[in-house]
C-alpha cells in the first residue's frame, strides 16, 4: 500500500513538472496574429479573460491576446496532437509564457480573476 502511495505521489509531481503551453509563432504580423486569435476564440477558446477589463487583458497587444487564445484552445482540447498548429501560426513550448496572469496549463490551473 505504501508503495502505491509513493508511485502516485511521484506521478503527480511528474505531471506538474511537464506543463506545456501553446503560443503564436514569432515573426508573424498583426494581421496573421489577429486571424489566429479570431479563429481560436470562435472555435472554443475561453477568451473572456482577454476582453477589456479581463484578468489577462494587459498587455493589450495582438500577440499577447493571440498567445492566450491559442493556449486556451490547446488546453481545452487536452493538448491533443494538432491542436496547437493553427495553420502553422502556433507551436508548443515548455517555457511558461505568462507575463501578467496565470494561463491554463496541463496541471489544470486557470486564470485568476
UniProtKB/TrEMBL annotation:
Keywords: Cell membrane, Disulfide bond, Glycoprotein, GPI-anchor, Lipoprotein, Membrane, Signal. This is Plasmodesmata callose-binding protein 3. The lineage of its organism: Eukaryota, Viridiplantae, Streptophyta, Embryophyta, Tracheophyta. PANTHER family: BETA-1,3 GLUCANASE, PLASMODESMATA CALLOSE-BINDING PROTEIN 3. It is a lipid-anchor; GPI-anchor. One of its GO terms (cellular component) is side of membrane. Residues 20-101 form the X8 domain. It comes from Actinidia rufa. InterPro entries: X8, X8_dom_prot. Residues 1-19 form the signal peptide.
Amino acid at each position: 500500500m505504501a508503495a502505491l502511495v509513493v508511485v502516485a505521489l511521484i506521478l503527480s509531481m511528474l505531471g506538474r513538472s511537464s506543463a506545456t503551453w501553446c503560443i503564436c509563432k514569432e515573426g508573424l504580423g498583426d494581421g496573421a496574429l489577429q486571424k489566429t486569435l479570431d479563429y481560436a476564440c470562435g472555435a472554443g477558446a475561453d477568451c473572456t479573460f482577454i476582453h477589456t477589463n479581463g484578468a489577462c487583458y494587459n498587455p493589450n497587444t495582438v500577440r499577447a491576446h493571440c498567445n492566450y487564445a491559442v493556449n486556451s484552445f490547446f488546453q481545452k482540447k487536452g493538448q491533443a496532437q494538432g491542436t496547437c498548429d493553427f495553420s502553422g501560426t502556433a507551436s508548443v513550448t515548455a517555457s511558461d509564457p505568462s507575463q501578467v496572469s496565470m494561463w491554463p496549463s496541463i496541471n489544470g490551473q486557470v486564470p485568476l480573476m
